[in-house]
Design a protein that fits this description.
By secondary structure, the chain is mostly helical. The protein folds into two domains: 87 residues, Helix Hairpins; 139 residues. The chain is built from six helices and three strands; from the N terminus they run H-H-H-H-E-E-H-E-H. It has a three-stranded mixed β-sheet. Helix 1 packs antiparallel against helix 3 and helix 2 runs antiparallel to helix 3. The radius of gyration is 43 Å and the shape is rod-shaped. Bound molecules: zinc ion.
Length: 238
C-alpha cells in the first residue's frame, strides 16, 4: 500500500467533514422569515394605533360639539323664560326650535356612544396585537441567539479542521495532492474510494483482478477503473 494513499484517505475524511460543516453553515436559517413576519406585525400595530388616534380625535371633537350644543340649548331656554319675548307666536316658534335642537342632540349622543364603543374595541385590538407582537419578538430573539451560537460553533470547527488539513497536506507529495484536488473538484468532493469486498464503495463497481493485484503490489496511486477515484483498501493498510 502506497503510504501516500493513507494520507490521502485521511485528507479525504477531513475534507468531507469540512464540506459537511460548510453545507450546514450555508443552510443555517438566520431567521429572515420570522424577521419579515415581525416587521409585518409591527406595521399592523402602527396602523391600528393610527386608527385609534384618529377615532379618538373624532370622538373628542364630537364631545366638544355636544357640549356646544348643550350650551346653545341652555341659552335658548334661558331666553325663552326670561320674559323678553311676550308674543305667543314667537314664543311657540322658540319652543319648537328648542325641541328640534334637543332631538338633534339625542342623535349626536347616540353617535357619540357608538364612537366610544368603536374605540373600546380598537383598544382591545391593540392589546391583542401587542401580545402577538411580543410573542413574535421573543421567538425571533431566541431564534437569532441560537443561530449565532450554531454559526460561531461551525466556524470555529471549520477553522480548527482547516489547520489540521494544512498540517496533513504538508506530508503529502505535491503530485499526489494535485491529483487528489483535481479529482475532488471533478467528482463532487469525493476523490478517494474505499475498497470493500473487491469493489469500489463509491461507484459500486467490482474491481478487476488486475487492479486488485496492482493495488496490492504497486507503490503507486491506483484508480477505480470505473469512476476514476483513488482506491484505498483498509485491509492492505493493516
Ligand atoms: Zn469507483
Amino acid at each position: 500500500m502506497h503510504r501516500q494513499m493513507s494520507l490521502l484517505r485521511d485528507l479525504q475524511a477531513i475534507d468531507s467533514y469540512i464540506d459537511r460543516l460548510r453545507k450546514e453553515l450555508a443552510q443555517l436559517d438566520s431567521g429572515e422569515r420570522i424577521r419579515v413576519k415581525l416587521e409585518q406585525s409591527r406595521a399592523r400595530m402602527e396602523q391600528i394605533k393610527a386608527r385609534y388616534e384618529q377615532s379618538y380625535a373624532a370622538a373628542a371633537e364630537q364631545e366638544r360639539l355636544l357640549q356646544e350644543f348643550d350650551q346653545r340649548i341652555r341659552q335658548a331656554e334661558a331666553d325663552l323664560y326670561s320674559g323678553r319675548v311676550t308674543n305667543p307666536r314667537e314664543l311657540q316658534l322658540m319652543q319648537q326650535e328648542i325641541e328640534q335642537a334637543k332631538q338633534t342632540r339625542e342623535e349626536l349622543d347616540m353617535q357619540m356612544l357608538k364612537m366610544w364603543d368603536d374605540l373600546e374595541s380598537l383598544k382591545k385590538d391593540i392589546d391583542a396585537s401587542e401580545r402577538d407582537l411580543q410573542q413574535i419578538e421573543r421567538f425571533y430573539e431566541a431564534h437569532v441567539e441560537e443561530y449565532r451560537q450554531r454559526k460561531a460553533a461551525l466556524e470555529s470547527e471549520i477553522a480548527f479542521h482547516e489547520k489540521e488539513r494544512e498540517k496533513l497536506t504538508q506530508q503529502i507529495d505535491p503530485d499526489a495532492l494535485a491529483r487528489y484536488q483535481t479529482l475532488r473538484e471533478r467528482l463532487g468532493g469525493t476523490a478517494v474510494a474505499v475498497v470493500a469486498q473487491k469493489a469500489c464503495t463509491v461507484c459500486h463497481t467490482l474491481l478487476t483482478p488486475y487492479t486488485l493485484k496492482r493495488l496490492e503490489n504497486e507503490d503507486a496511486l491506483i484508480a477505480c477503473e470505473s469512476c476514476g477515484r483513488l482506491l484505498y483498501d483498509p485491509q492492505l493498510a493493516q
